[in-house]
Amino acid sequence: MRNLPKECDVLVVAVKPQQIEDVLPDLGVALHGSTRRPVVLSVVAGVATKRIEQFLPSVVPVVRAMPNTPMTVGAAVTAIARGGAATERDLRLVESVLESVGEVLRVPEDQLDAVTAVSGSGPAYVFLVAEMMIDAAMKLGLDRATADRLVTGTLAGSSAMLGDADPVQLRAAVTSPAGTTAAALEVFEQSDIRQTFRGALTAARDRSLELSGIVRPPLAPASADQH
Predict the structure, then answer these.
(1) CB of 65 within 8 A of CB of 97?
(2) Annotated binding-site residue? 65
(3) Is 14 marked within a binding site?
(4) Looking at the keywords, is Oxidoreductase present (predicted)?
(5) Where are the beta strands (DSSP E) in 57-187?
(6) Lowest model confidence (mean pLDDT) among 41-50, 78-87, 206-215
(7) Which of 9, 14, 58, 163 has the fewest CB atoms lying closer than 10 Å?
């Protein structure tokens, strides 16, 4: 790890929150005294930039990011937030890295817990919908292969239609009065699905906030010669 600052423009910290204290002290030592100041890009859930900065020399820029798993197919949406020492140049550098796997947007750091609930965990919600639709399709008599193709194709096509379109208008365009779609949507509304989604996202947001308490600050602040 001691050679990393000499080799990198961006250092990505991607560990579990509980492992931060095992990684960052060594990184701080490696960065101490180095003339090069790579951007430390953290994708660690629930750990604030201020917490990370406590382990590092004060001049080291820290940027926190929340990507999601569609990055594996180049379709991620990643939110980033800057730490105290990060400059516009640092943000642009991070954006240039993350844009290789999808879209990047900037948010205030205090919104990253909500971002985690919406887009960080969001793919799992979509996969759950796919799972439930496939199960329901098979209950209606379709074989698994047919159900898989119908559901995955429908979700992929519907996602492509979203783009900059209004989902309310798209839904209305599919829904004929007293038709089959209206019958299905009525069941969803009667089950209070909107409240279920609000509750689920709130639970994810709250868990992200809880994770921030898992990592303790250093026992003592970095010495003056490290800043």
Answers:
(1) no
(2) no
(3) yes
(4) yes
(5) 62-66, 76-82, 102-106
(6) 206-215
(7) 163
| Beta carbons within 8 Å of 73's beta carbon, 6+ residues apart | none
Name the pTM for this structure. Answer: 0.86
Q: Is the dihedral of CA 74, 52, 93, 104 positive or negative?
A: positive
End-to-end CA distance of the chain: 20
Q: Which amino acid is at 110?
A: D
Q: Which two tokens stand for residue 197?
A: 């989604």
**Segment holding 7, helix H or strand E:** helix 4-7
Whether 15 has a binding-site annotation, put simply, is yes
Domains, the chain, in order of start with CATH, read 4-120+211-226 (3.40.50.720), 122-191 (1.10.3730.10)
Residue length of the chain: 227
Question: Is residue 220 packed enough to be buried (19+ CB in 10 Å), middle (13-18) or exposed (0-12)?
Answer: exposed
Contact 48, 82 (CB under 8 A): no
